[in-house]
Amino acid sequence: MHIAAHEWARPIPTQIASTGPMASLYWRLSGHQPDDAARAEALAFVRRKLDEVADSPTDLPAAPEELGAWMDGNAQRVAAQYAEYLEGRKAGGPRRFFGNRAHALYFLRVVAPTKLVDGSWLYGLVAHWRNSRFSDLVRTYVEELGEGAPDKNHVLLYRKLLASSGLDPVDDLDDAFYEQGLIQLALGWHGEALLPEVIGFNLGYEQLPLHLLITAYELNELGLDPYYFTLHVTVDNTDTGHAKRACQAVLDTLPKLGDSSGFWERVRNGSKLADAGLGTTQVIREFDIAREVVRILSRKSVAGHGAHSDYCKVAGRSVNDWLAEPSRVPGFLEALQQAGWIHLGRPVDESRFWGLLQGEKAEMFGVFSSYELQVIHDWIRGAASADGQPYADLGVPQRASFRAAQRLATLRGRALPTPDVQTPLLDPDLDALEDQLRVLDADAQMQLLVQAMSPVQHWTPAGLKATRLFWERSRA
Ligand SMILES: [Fe+2]
Which domain of life is it from (predicted)? Predict the structure, then answer.
């Protein structure tokens, strides 16, 4: 079988993915400052979602005064469930979420559209920072942005996690994976029209969930950086964290002259959107590694057909022919197994197909991303992949937790230096921001800073700088 690697490696148009209606609106709200049409569509979208959940139950208390007890009850329940989980693991029980390393990477990939707009639902309130009733919410938003520190900005941390796990760019995702992120963006661009719903969403979303604790524990166990998740365990705490401030924000903003019960009802309905779209446990449960292998190969077939010589035949059909239609991929994989190129449930070295993808003489070296290789690797190994082994030796002891590997790297002098926040950065927007700040009056300066703190760019050098300045000045 002869495969010309450079042919397979032809770049695939990024537009192949993310062309569904939700993904497209998501990008119009987060790729650049949205125009009026995008904003109007966002409002209509989120109103439709609010109508959809209007009749579904909520566990929020009937009266806002009971929020403190509700939050404490939730925190205690989660703590007890997590203690039970840890006990089970100590007794030798298997991981609850991630069957293997590919499963965990899949999770990080499909939740990316949500994590990359983390905090965005609160953006609309930042412009109203002078109203002290919103101070808890503005502060929560600024903390999501890491107060402008690049190593604390949640979105930037997730971007780095994707890059270090070989998961960027995130493309070819089902439209459904954009729903939760789209809701967050839509709320963020309509903080004024949807004030009670934003406050309710924040209340529902900022309570510490059990899945966050288990995710962090199991990512670390699999050697993947859990920091983004452990950070949220500490920021969502019920003592001083976002969970408590979310409750306080409701009490602070409830109308004293206006219709407080109507407002509370809208808060309650908004909170239900925190569970809209595909939830964490659902996407973890529905992972099907064979389906993911088919998706990966179908996508490659777009570029790969025509790249193989015609004398290279599997089950009487040329590889070019197999790859001519993405729909033939499941049959092709079946044929590769029949022909002895793939031995499922055996070490990968026994599969000649694996030897084409990975190793010194691999003819398709570089065709698949590290994520894709991990999926194929774990699929071939089957049950044995539960040991969490990376597809290639990454220079750390097998099965070391992320934290243990990090300690070891530090000891060996291999750890990356901590980024120096003071180092001047080259960024066109940074210059533009500084130029504009120089000529504007104080009020207009604050407006500009707020604009630069939007979900579109708060994680860029200019956005981070704007966040630092905003935070300093708004508290002066
Ligand atoms: Fe966050």
Answer: Bacteria
